[in-house]
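Suppose a colleague, Dr. K., hands you the sequence of a protein chain of 389 amino acids and asks what its three-dimensional shape might be. Before reaching for any lab equipment, you can write down a predicted structure in token form. Begin with the sequence itself:
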Amino acid sequence: MKLILNNISFLPFALPDIGEEEISEVVDSLRSGWLTTGPKTKRFEVEFARFIGEGVQAIAVNSATAGLHLALEAIAISPGDEVITSPYTFTATAEVIRYLGANPVFVDVNPKTLNIDVNQIRNAITERTRAIIPVHFAGLACDMQEIMNISSEYNLRVIEDAAHALPTLYNGKIIGSLDTDVTVFSFYATKTLATGEGGMVVTCNEEIAKRCRLMRLHGINRDAFDRYTSDKPSWYYEVIAPGFKYNMTDVASSLGIHQLRKLNDMRAKREAMARKYDEAFQDLPIILPARPLPGDQHAWHLYVIRLRDDAKIGRDNFISEMFRKGIGCSVHFIPLHLHPYWRDTYQLKPDDFPSTHDAYKRAISLPLYTRLSDQDQERVIQAVIELLG
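The predicted structure, expressed as tokens, is then:
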């Protein structure tokens, strides 16, 4: 897709990679008459669980936000509890904690990886701490071994925010298969697997999976697909908990089925593009994204550069100039301590999170998606060099 802006062909920051397979599957769902949660969602869940492996169960939801909420509810996070997480994330990571009346406790990031600084977690633990939500920023795994050591030492639950991390490896194991309580993935339109809106809750814990399935759809003990395909009366169901409306539709699942099959190939393309950026920018006044450790694999959901002090242009002006050149950029993230709700509710200040705040002031996310052609990427590279070289 080419957009024209001021007579310039515009490269958007991100585009989903949707092919004829996805389109045909969606059309098949439309023609079947089954649009809500049904056979395609069941199929997507089974295939996703198989992709992750390690005997996990997968519960499809309408957003990663919903998935995080379900996960916290399933481990019984309650009013007054505390959950440790990073301020360098989208607001959804923290807002779901507030849904349950609990409080987020923010820990600064590692200045190299931009993932939560594991060396600061212990100082944030109190008698009210119940869980940790590590955020795998941009697709690079957090230091999960240390996080698991801390969780074991203090008897804390761990829910991974893997909205960026599909498929990410940590110590040779795919994120979603580690010995944590729950992992939640996002399938938003810009993600490495895109269904428009959607997400997946993954867990090996049978009780957590059972609770998430129940609460996903109003606390009803039978979903619509079960009711209309079983030998029991289709009209009968029972509400056994005050649940939510978080189910994924078959239309979205139709996209997910085929996105999943292309996922490893798309990740390989993203990695090749990231390496091309690295090579082109190595002599510029830029802090390049952290590389994965041996045995790890980066999902490359985002390619985030940071301008050094010796750059001849500031971050905001850089993004404006890239826009004038017809290239979309973004910023990941505006950290939570700068948003009025989090700032004012918890009296947060930039000095509380020096690494997070410094990263934010410098950060620029460049276009990185599999529909970006070699020619398009070269155009991005040349624009960056013109502004910073």
